[in-house]
C-alpha cells in the first residue's frame, strides 16, 4: 500500500520533472486540475459499480462494463449516477479512456479538451451540483497554452506524461483515509513555495494556519466556518482537522475568492478532503466590493458564523473601487472607512461583521495595523473601546512566501467581559530557519495556543494589557510597548574589571542553580571583598558535581521512569492501531500527555519535550501508523518493497530496482542490530583503506620535496595534468614502468614497490568492501521477510523510541548547563583586572623596545 508521504514525494518529484521551465504558479492549475478529474472519473466508476452491482472486477473490466451499460441504458444510467454524485463522466471521457488511448498510441489532446467540456454538460441542473460548475474553465486549464509546449506534438507529449503520473492511483480509496486530500494540500503548499510572491493570493503557510485554526477550534462551539479570502481553502480545512468527527460531519463551510483559477482550486481541495457538496458554499467574487453572504430572511444583514478565519492580501491598495460609504453595515462599527491605500482593516471589519455573537475570528495582518494612525488609528480605538480585540499574536518575519515582513494574528470576539484585558503574545523570536524561510516548530505553535487558552502571562513572551494601559499608550498596540524582550546580555561591572572578582549579583541571578543546588554552588565561592567572589575550583569541576548531585539524579531518575511508563503505554497502543483508530486524536493525546508529565518539573521547558514527541510523529509515526492500521504491525514489519533508484540522464534517464527496503523497518537498522560481525568486518576494511590513503598521501608529499629520498624514487611516477603540472596521486602505469627499470634491493626499488603494494592492497580492500556490502544488502533484504515477532518488536521500538528516554532526561541538564555556561563567561570576563592588563602591556612594550634596539639597519 502506498502512503500519503510516498504519494506526496512521487507527485512532487513528477511535477518538477514534467513542468520544465513553466512557472510553478501556472503549472499547478494543470497538475491539480487533472488530478481532480481522475478523482471524478474514479468516483463515477465506483458509483456505477455499487449501483449496478457488478461485483469484483479489474479497473479495465469495470470500464468495459460501464461502456456496455451506457450503450444499453443510455440516459437512464447517466441520471442514476448523476442523482448520486450530482454529475457523471461518460465512458468515452473517463480518465481511464485517456490512458487506454495513450497505451494504444491513439491519444489526442483534443480528447482531453472534449472531456473537460463534456463534464460541464453532465452536471445536474438543480441541487448542490453547482459546486462542480466551471471547475475546468479555459481560464484555468487552457490546453492550447504554448507554455505546455511550443507545438501540438510537444503539448501532447507533456500532457500524456502528466496524465500517466496519476494512472495507478485509486483516488476514491485514497480519499477515504484523507491521503488524497493531504497530498493535494501538500502539492498546493509546494507550488506556493516555488511560486514565491505569486503564492500569497492562494496559500497560508501551514504553521500559521495551525495557530489560527487551533485557537478558533478550541475557543468556540463551531458549526459553521467562513473564510472571506479563501484562497486554496487550507484555513478552512485546518480548522476542520481540529474538530471532532461528529462536528466535522455537520460543519458548514463558506468562502469567497476573487481569482477564478484559485476559486476552482478551493472547490477541488474541499471535495477531495471529503467535504460534501451540500456542506460547502464557495463563491467567486470580490469580498470587499459586494458583501456576501447575506441572510435571505434579513436582506440587510449578513450571515453570521461561529468561526471566521482569513489571510487577506496585505495593505491592498485601491480596495474601495465600489465606492463604499461608512454607512455600509460592515463599516458602521468603525465610524470611518479604512484608507484607500491600505485595505487591512476593511477585511478585518468585513470578517467581524460576519462573526457570530459567541464565535471566534482569527485574521493575519501586517504589523502596521497595530500602530498606524489617522483613520486606522480611529478604527483600532473603536474596536478596543467596543472590546472586540481579544488577542494579538506577533509572529516572526519571513514566514510567508510572498512577503518578508513581520505579521500578526489578531483574535476577535464579540462576547468578551467588559473588563477583560487584551492578551498580547510576542512569538517573534520562536522559530527555526529552513532554507530562506523562517518556520514555527510544533513546540512554538503549542506554546502560542496554550498561552492563549490559559491567558497566561510569561515574562518576555506574553502580557495581559488592561484598558488603562492601552489608553495610556493612546491605543497604540505595538507589541514592544507591552511585552519587553528579556535582555540576556549580562551588564558589565566596572569594579570587577578594575579589581577582579565575580559580582555577587551575577551569582544571585543564577536562579535555577540557586533553587536546585545552592549549597553546591556556594561551596565553590570565596568572598574576596563585599559583593564580590571568586571560584575556588574550575567551572568544569562545578558542572560535574552539580550534574551528579543526588537531587539532580533523583529528578533525572523520576523523569526516566515516567518516560519509560509513557512509552510502554503508547507502544502497545501504536502497535495495535487499526482502521477504527483516530490517528490524529492519538497524536494529540501523546503530545498533551508528555506536556502533563513534564509540567511537574518547574525548571524544565515542557515544549522541548513536546517537540521530541512531535518529531517522532513527523519522522516515523505518521507514516508507519497509516500502514499498520491497514495491514497490521507484524505483517508490515515483515513487508518489503523495491528500492527504486534513478539512473542515467536526459533521454536515458530511467528507474531501476536496486534491492529491497523494509516498508517500515529501515535496512540500516536491521544491519546495525542483526549483522554486527558483518558490519564490523566492513568497517575494519574501510579503516585499513583510510590508513593506506593516509600513507600514500604522505608519500606523495614527500615525493614533492627535493631534499627527500622519496623525491628521487617517486617524483617521476606522480600523476600530471595536461599542462604537465604535478598532481596529488601516483600514476599506476608510470609506476609499473619505473619498477621494471629499477635495480632490485635499491632504496628506489623498495620505495616504488611499497607504493605498488599499498595501491594494490587498497584496490583489493575496496573490491572486498564492495562485495561484502552487496552481500550484506542482499542478506538484509531477505531477512526482512523472516523477521520474528520479537525482532520486529525490538527494531520498531528502537526506531520509534530508541533515544527518547535520554532526550527527556537531558531536558533536566539544559537549564543547568545554560547557567553554568553563563558563570564560565562571567569568570572569564573578570579574570584579568585592569592593572594586570596594564602590566602585561608594559611588559610587551618593554620587550618590543628591547627588540627594536637590537635591530641593525644595513
UniProtKB/TrEMBL annotation:
<dbReference type="InterPro" id="IPR004546">
    <property type="entry name" value="Restrct_endonuc_T1M"/>
</dbReference>
<dbReference type="GO" id="GO:0009007">
    <property type="term" value="F:site-specific DNA-methyltransferase (adenine-specific) activity"/>
</dbReference>
<dbReference type="GO" id="GO:0003677">
    <property type="term" value="F:DNA binding"/>
</dbReference>
<dbReference type="GO" id="GO:0008170">
    <property type="term" value="F:N-methyltransferase activity"/>
</dbReference>
<dbReference type="InterPro" id="IPR038333">
    <property type="entry name" value="T1MK-like_N_sf"/>
</dbReference>
<dbReference type="Pfam" id="PF02384">
    <property type="entry name" value="N6_Mtase"/>
</dbReference>
<protein>
    <recommendedName>
        <fullName>site-specific DNA-methyltransferase (adenine-specific)</fullName>
        <ecNumber>2.1.1.72</ecNumber>
    </recommendedName>
</protein>
<dbReference type="InterPro" id="IPR029063">
    <property type="entry name" value="SAM-dependent_MTases_sf"/>
</dbReference>
<feature type="coiled-coil region">
    <location>
        <begin position="682"/>
        <end position="709"/>
    </location>
</feature>
<dbReference type="GO" id="GO:0009307">
    <property type="term" value="P:DNA restriction-modification system"/>
</dbReference>
<dbReference type="GO" id="GO:0032259">
    <property type="term" value="P:methylation"/>
</dbReference>
<keyword id="KW-0489">Methyltransferase</keyword>
<feature type="domain" description="N6 adenine-specific DNA methyltransferase N-terminal">
    <location>
        <begin position="7"/>
        <end position="163"/>
    </location>
</feature>
<dbReference type="InterPro" id="IPR022749">
    <property type="entry name" value="D12N6_MeTrfase_N"/>
</dbReference>
<dbReference type="InterPro" id="IPR003356">
    <property type="entry name" value="DNA_methylase_A-5"/>
</dbReference>
<comment type="similarity">
    <text>Belongs to the N(4)/N(6)-methyltransferase family.</text>
</comment>
<dbReference type="Pfam" id="PF12161">
    <property type="entry name" value="HsdM_N"/>
</dbReference>
<keyword id="KW-0175">Coiled coil</keyword>
<keyword id="KW-0808">Transferase</keyword>
<dbReference type="InterPro" id="IPR002052">
    <property type="entry name" value="DNA_methylase_N6_adenine_CS"/>
</dbReference>
<keyword id="KW-0949">S-adenosyl-L-methionine</keyword>
<dbReference type="InterPro" id="IPR051537">
    <property type="entry name" value="DNA_Adenine_Mtase"/>
</dbReference>
<keyword id="KW-0680">Restriction system</keyword>
<feature type="domain" description="DNA methylase adenine-specific">
    <location>
        <begin position="176"/>
        <end position="488"/>
    </location>
</feature>
